[in-house]
TrEMBL record, chain A:
This is AP-5 complex subunit beta-1. Signal peptide: none annotated. The lineage of its organism: Eukaryota, Metazoa, Chordata, Craniata, Vertebrata. It comes from Cyprinus carpio. GO terms for cellular component: AP-type membrane coat adaptor complex; lysosomal membrane. InterPro entries: AP5B1, AP5B1_barrel, AP5B1_C, AP5B1_middle, AP5B1_N, ARM-type_fold. Residues 731-801 form the AP-5 complex subunit beta-1 beta-barrel domain.
From TrEMBL, chain B:
Pfam families: Adap_comp_sub. PROSITE patterns: MHD. GO terms for cellular component: AP-type membrane coat adaptor complex; cytosol; late endosome membrane; lysosomal membrane. It comes from the Eukaryota. It comes from Cyprinus carpio (Common carp). The gene is LOC109064925. InterPro entries: AP5M1, MHD. Probably part of the adaptor protein complex 5 (AP-5) a tetramer composed of AP5B1, AP5M1, AP5S1 and AP5Z1. It is a peripheral membrane protein. This is AP-5 complex subunit mu-1. Keywords: Cytoplasm, Endosome, Lysosome, Membrane, Protein transport, Transport. The keyword DNA-binding does not apply. Signal peptide: none annotated. It is found in: Cytoplasm, Cytosol; Late endosome membrane; Lysosome membrane. GO terms for biological process: endosomal transport; protein transport.
């Protein structure tokens, strides 16, 4: 496999799930690898572009802080300058990546040196208009520089506000295809400069003019205003400059920009038009009629973004640019385009949305909600009637629009139209009869929903719909969940639930009237679902349901077959019946039914449940019954002590009732501070210490053949109460701690059981056994299940436990009585191996620092005591070894040089070096440090 | 809205199938797993075959309440970008070979970087296979080079203008249901002309008394438009006094093939009037078809076929059918009759088909949710070269090119059928347009 393939794999794994990918490594080391490969002269452009794409897509994952961002940008800049002239595409990619990193890591917002230098460099690049200096081949670089500057101005509005004259001249000079890039850059700068000026209280003519004539540095201060520049159509009030300013120059600039807009691609043209509209809206001295010359061209356009920009103009300027005639015309065009045979479906759907949000000159309401423009009459909208040949989105969209049209229409016309829509709905339902595929059913029911939302008041129609649905149900009982879903949704969305109730009554009746042959086991489960839903309606009498159930049970072999699912479904109906307000009218019948089940149904669980319901029914008043059956709310603390799972059918009720959840921390794990010397890596008794002139390294390494040797890190914690817990939790029992890992560097951690934790007693100590695959710092999510004194069970999350790098350190795993000589021999051998880069992940590094008040000996005593290899008496050289399971070593040689203390580092896993460095930096951070890499 | 094929019913899933959630917008919402159940919106999608192209436009507005789509500038830019991507990946045919598609997909990142650097669309990708023949870099004079034109043409000057008109129809053969048909046309241009911004004018003309072209949409390269050209609109009352040409389109052409303009037109009669009568008799169906070519239509077809499918039946057994003109073929799948009418209708301008079809097989044929019982249709496929129904044409001499070299000018026109159905008049046919009920 080539290096390119390896990177291909790596990067697609990263792109697929950055968090999963980084669980096996760190963003630091991945970034280091990327940058390293980018500096590699032998890697080809294609690979490098791939590498850069990661920084383009996920800058903040790889550069979590501004400082990392700045360093990365610097590295990229050096890559950029070392890339040969001919690698144009790579260079453009690197430029975009630098810009991206600078913006996303706030280097731009914080005005760092790097951002400043980069801006200067970009501005320098765009000076070469018409490729005078660098030649045509470098044109893409210039285009990219413009794009980068535009992005920076967008993210830091006003940055270019003092450079507008220079930008204008560049734009004027440029005649190549890049003209568009300069034009967009200038226009954005101009708009933002004016926008910032509107925040100023008094604006003089001079200040206004100085915008256009600006030729100074970058305006870093402007972004301190903290402006988030929303488009003006999103603002309650358009910011405006005071009237009376001299706009002659600006006007001529605007005219020339508009004249040349034709030279731009439609998408850029639409963006340009929007910027210009915003400028005109902010400057009272400019008249919207400036756009008049472009209107006709825009009215006829086939391009969706240009048409959209035209609507934006309409929205902003209404009758100051568009006459009533224009408005009528534009709306007709919209209706025409919304069904144009040559346009694509998403565009047509978008135009229909535009009709429903059409910016009328005289809007009746301006709530931002969908509303039909006054000018859209049934005649105008006739061509938008839905048909069965439409795709589903188009059909639903047209139906919704036409419902609104006919709702508003005059009576005679409306009747005809509504009748058509109704026939359309009926045609859809007829299709379900022949084609029950999910898409068809769902689309038809959605259409029905839209229709009912508008016309449920027309009783004759809505009743015909119910008849049709019941008729369909009698043939296709599999539609039960769809019908229940429809009844629920309609009930939720209409104030008047009467339609849903009527539908459910119809369905109940339909089931009652079915010939017994149709009540097969398969269909029965659908019918029981419907009856269960019917039983929830207080307005529907339930006597027939109970008779039917009893009848089925008595006259079929269901009881003998004892199918648990069927029994459960019958009981689910009964459960809802128990809650029914008119239960006293059917009390005897229901009791008979339950008793029959409890005696005859050949399944113990079903029998027991039936008997339980029977007992509840016959012993409790209805109010109590309803109280008992009420479902615990999901999550949150249940108000009262709930009963055990009454019905398995009710999803989630069992777990809700048995284990309560609390969102606050009840318990926490506190690290036990311990001496390093106490640490051990578990048993190493197996080592024979009798032999003499042995190769101790071999002996040492031999130990690892024993499975599980030296693979665990044991961390000790006290399990205590979190602060401010409810007194309810003062005494908790049978605690089970469960650990979840946030990455895959460690093996699964076993649950830990603790008998009890009392607030006023000494906290129990728990030992967490970690088994690293990669010895990186990690975080554990901990949760606990426990019981309180009143017998209730609880589930609660503990604060996350983070395991730092030094916490994974273990002393060299040799028996305690091993002599210093053999330890030193092992140390030296590992060092030699690492120095000669064997194994190949080995690395050597150097870390220097100056001691402060603390002497070196104190430092060593405080941090390295348990890991020292050499004789304690030596004061010239200290050898320190950290063992990190499963089998990594970090070796330190610490010497006192003349002016500083040198720490030579060797490791058999170079990926640990960043952690070692930050660890050393951490423990010496009151001393002055310098780091040198070998 | 209906999908053909063997879709097995899947259970109703509330999250997905909630009827109150409106699936009628070009933007969908994507619910993400994980804590908080966040959603991505507005996700724009374009589907072509197995390919789904999607983009997430920037919402420059407070997220709540959700802003209406038309208030977001990025939505139309996203739609334009997706359309462009679709053309780039799939080409004009719409169905690229897998290896062609793979190579285009491989080129996608660099193309996107060019047309959409840092996620900001600047242009649409060039349509697949549209590399212009001979292009030189722009000469770099005082004239500004348009951003949509990478260079200038070098070589022989050729201007080709192709006018294609399509006709759709639904014919029911009943007095209760009015037949409908419509015509729409498009003018495709390819201009190989020298110069940075050469001026070209194409003029469409109608015959005297021709009904005006409606719903005209033009390419962004058209420099100016006369207001009268845009006035006719299909949603309006038909106004015969409206402007009826000549339609002048002055423009400066891009290098590649492009659609200069499109229009719709209302013609008094469909080109072929058909009647279809299907009757069920014991174990066979009796069919009777008459097709009548309108006298104004040029009787010279490139091809003309009538397809007679049978759905929700067993496969066909013996077929005893006679045709007065052309030949009859039974498809390999035994579920479709193909009546090949050939290049010409007979002198009477009328052709007939009559006979019985038996369904003896035990193997079930294709199914269709609409075509049950006697609901059945014939679909016509035809193409007539050098003819349009609206009468619209581009005269070779009316194409004006203001350039130093005199170009060769090629103009063509044709009429092609599209969704041309004739429904069985003895069965129920699905209504296909509300226009019939609502406006007449």
């Amino acid at each position: 496999m080539t290096i390119t393939d390896l990177w291909d794999q790596k990067i697609s794994a990263f792109q697929l799930s950055p968090s999963q990918f980084l669980a096996t490594t760190t963003s630091e080391s991945f970034l280091a690898e990327l940058l390293h490969e980018l500096r590699n002269d032998k890697a080809n452009d294609h690979l490098k572009i791939l590498l850069v794409s990661v920084l383009l897509d996920h800058p903040t994952i790889l550069c979590p802080s501004s400082s990392v961002g700045e360093e990365t940008a610097l590295e990229l800049l050096s890559v950029f300058s070392h890339t040969p002239q001919k690698s144009i595409i790579l260079k453009c990619n690197v430029m975009l990546a630098i810009t991206n990193v600078i913006i996303c890591t706030s280097c731009l917002a914080n005005h760092t040196k790097m951002a400043e230098d980069w801006l200067d460099l970009l501005f320098q690049m765009i000076q070469d208009t018409n490729d005078y200096r660098c030649g045509l081949s470098q044109q893409p670089i210039r285009a990219t520089a413009c794009d980068c500057l535009r992005e920076m101005e967008t993210c830091s509005p006003g940055l270019l506000s003092q450079k507008l004259e220079a930008l204008y001249l560049l734009k004027q000079q440029e005649t190549t295809v890049l003209h568009q890039s300069y034009c967009m850059l200038y226009t954005l700068g101009l708009k933002n400069a004016i926008r910032i000026l509107t925040t100023q209280k008094d604006v003089t003519d001079l200040e206004f003019k100085s915008i256009l004539g600006g030729n100074e540095g970058f305006a870093w201060k402007s972004n301190q205003l903290g402006l988030t520049l929303l488009p003006i159509n999103m603002m309650v009030q358009v910011p405006r400059l005071p009237p009376g300013l001299d706009c002659k120059e600006l006007k001529s600039i605007m005219s020339s920009l508009l004249e040349e807009s034709y030279l731009q691609t439609p998408i850029s043209q639409s963006a340009l038009l929007r910027e210009l509209v915003e400028v005109v809206a902010m400057v009272p001295g400019l008249s919207p009629t400036l756009f008049k010359s472009q209107l006709l061209r825009l009215f006829g356009t086939a391009d969706v973004s240009l048409m959209h920009a035209t609507l934006f103009m309409k929205d902003t300027f209404t009758d100051s640019l568009f006459t009533a005639e224009d408005e009528n015309f534009l709306l007709k065009r919209l209706v025409g385009t919304a069904q144009h045979p040559l346009l694509r479906i998403p565009e047509k759907l978008f135009y229909m949305e535009c009709i429903l949000h059409f910016p009328e000159n005289r809007p009746i309401s301006s709530s931002g909600e969908e509303s039909l423009p006054v000018l859209v009459t049934p005649r105008l909208a006739a061509s938008l009637h839905p048909t069965v040949f439409n795709d589903s989105a188009t059909m639903l969209c047209r139906l919704n629009l036409l419902c609104l049209v006919h709702l508003e229409a005059d009576e005679g016309e409306a009747d005809k139209g509504i009748r058509y829509l109704f026939e359309h709905i009926m045609a859809l339902l007829k299709i379900i009869d022949n084609d029950g595929s999910r898409e068809v059913v769902v689309t038809s029911f959605r259409a029905l929903f839209i229709f009912l939302m508008h016309f449920n008041g027309m009783e004759n129609l809505s009743e015909k719909v119910i008849d049709k649905l019941c008729d369909m149900y009698s043939r296709h009982s599999r539609l039960a969940p769809n019908l229940i879903g429809l009844a629920n949704r309609i009930q939720e969305h209409l104030d008047d639930p009467v339609w849903s109730v009527k539908l459910l009554i119809g369905l109940q009746k339909c089931i009652m009237e079915m010939p017994p042959l149709q009540l097969t086991i398969h269909n029965l489960s659908w019918h029981l679902k419907v009856l269960k839903r019917v039983a929830q309606e207080g307005q529907i009498t339930q006597r027939n349901t109970i008779y039917l159930l009893l009848n089925i049970l008595i006259n079929s072999n269901l009881c003998e077959r004892g199918n648990w699912q069927v029994g459960n479904a019958v009981l689910a109906v009964c459960r809802n019946l128990l809650e029914h307000p008119s239960i006293d009218q059917v009390f005897i019948e229901l009791a008979d039914l339950l008793q029959y089940i409890s005696v005859h149904y050949d399944d113990t669980d079903i029998k027991d449940h039936a008997r339980f319901y029977y007992t509840l029914l016959t012993n409790l008043s209805w109010e109590k019954l309803a109280g008992v059956l009420v479902k615990g709310l999901d999550g949150g603390r249940a108000k009262e002590r709930s009963h055990s799972a009454i019905m398995a059918e009710n999803e989630g009720i069992a777990s809700n009732l048995t284990v309560h959840k609390t969102n606050r921390h009840v318990l926490q794990l506190i690290k036990v501070q311990e001496e390093a010397s106490q640490r051990s890596s578990g048993s190493s008794e197996l080592l024979e210490t009798t032999g003499e002139a042995k190769n101790w390294l071999e002996v040492y390494q031999g130990q690892f053949h024993t499975p599980g040797f030296g693979s665990d890190v044991n961390l000790r914690y006290n399990l205590t109460h979190a602060k401010d817990t409810d007194p309810l939790f003062d005494k908790v029992f049978t605690i089970c701690l469960h650990f979840e890992l946030k990455d895959s560097n460690y093996a699964k951690v076993n649950d830990i059981h603790v008998p009890c934790v009392f607030r006023d007693r000494k906290p129990p100590e728990v030992k967490v056994k970690l088994k690293p695959f990669q010895p990186y710092p990690t975080t554990l999510c901990v949760s606990a299940v426990f019981t309180t004194q009143d017998g209730r069970s609880w589930h609660s999350q503990l604060p996350d436990v983070s395991v730092s790098f030094p916490e994974i350190f273990l002393p060299l795993p040799l028996p305690p009585n091993t002599s210093c000589e053999c330890k030193e021999q092992v140390f030296d051998r590992i060092w030699e191996a690492a120095a000669s880069e064997n194994p190949d992940k080995s690395a050597i590094s150097l870390f220097c620092f100056k001691t402060g008040d603390e002497s070196l000996a104190d430092l060593i005593k405080a941090h390295f005591q348990g890991y020292l290899i050499t004789d304690q008496q030596s004061k010239i050289l200290w050898k320190v070894l950290f063992f990190l399971p499963p089998m990594c070593h970090v070796l330190l040689k610490i010497t006192q040089a003349e002016d500083a203390i040198q720490v030579s580092i060797a490791t058999d896993n170079w990926e640990l070096l960043p952690f070692v460095n930050s660890y050393l930096q951490n423990i010496t951070d009151h001393c002055s440090t310098t780091v040198t890499d070998d | 809205m209906h999908t053909h094929g063997q879709d097995r019913p899947k259970p109703y899933v509330e999250v997905r199938d909630d009827y109150a959630r409106q699936h009628r917008s070009p933007a969908v919402e994507l619910r993400l797993d994980g804590p908080g159940g966040r959603t991505l919106w507005p996700l724009l999608t374009v589907t072509q075959g197995a390919l789904i192209l999607a983009c997430l436009p920037l919402v420059e507005a407070p997220p709540e309440p959700r802003p209406p789509l038309p208030s977001l500038a990025s939505v139309s830019q996203g739609l334009a970008l997706l359309s462009g991507l679709q053309d780039f990946l799939c080409g004009p045919g719409g169905k690229p070979e897998p290896d062609v598609l793979a190579s285009r997909l491989a080129a996608l990142p660099s193309v996107l970087l060019q047309v959409c650097p840092l996620g900001r669309p600047l242009d649409t990708p060039p349509p697949a296979g549209s590399v212009p023949a001979a292009v030189a870099p722009s000469p770099g004079g005082a004239q500004k080079q348009p951003a949509w034109k990478a260079g200038v043409h070098r070589g022989r000057a050729v201007v080709s203008v192709a006018l294609t008109e399509k006709v759709r129809s639904m014919q029911y053969g009943k007095s209760s249901q009015q037949d409908i048909w419509d015509v729409y046309g498009m003018v495709m241009c390819k201009c190989e002309v020298e110069g940075v911004l050469p001026n070209v004018t194409v003029t469409l003309t109608l015959p005297p008394n021709g009904s005006p072209l409606q719903d005209i949409l033009v390419h962004p390269c058209v420099t100016s438009l006369d207001a009268s050209i845009l006035t006719a609109c299909s949603v309006d009352e038909n106004d015969c006094s409206a402007f009826s040409g000549p339609y002048k389109f002055p423009f400066s052409p891009p290098l590649e093939l492009f659609r200069l303009c499109s229009y719709t037109s209302q013609v008094p009669m469909p080109p072929i009037l058909g009647s279809y009568q299907l009757k069920a008799e014991e174990n066979h169906l009796k069919a009777n078809v008459v097709l009548k070519l309108h006298e104004s239509v040029k009787n010279s077809f490139e091809y003309c076929e009538a397809h007679i499918p049978f759905f929700n039946q067993n496969l066909m057994g013996s077929v005893e059918v006679k045709v007065s003109s052309g030949q009859l073929e039974v498809s390999k799948e035994k579920s479709l009759l193909v009546w090949v009418l050939g290049q010409k209708f007979p002198k009477s301008h009328e052709a007939a088909l009559e006979g019985t079809v038996h369904f003896s097989g035990t193997v079930a044929g294709p199914t269709d949710p609409l075509c049950t019982g006697l609901t059945a249709y014939i679909k016509l496929y035809f193409r007539v070269a050098d003819f349009t129904l609206s009468g619209c044409c581009v005269d070779q001499h009316s194409v004006q090119v203001y350039s130093s070299a005199k170009p060769r000018i090629v103009t063509t026109r044709e009429l092609v059928s599209s969704e041309y159905y004739i429904w069985n008049s003895t069965g129920d046919a699905p209504v296909s347009s509300g226009a019939v009920t609502a406006s007449h």
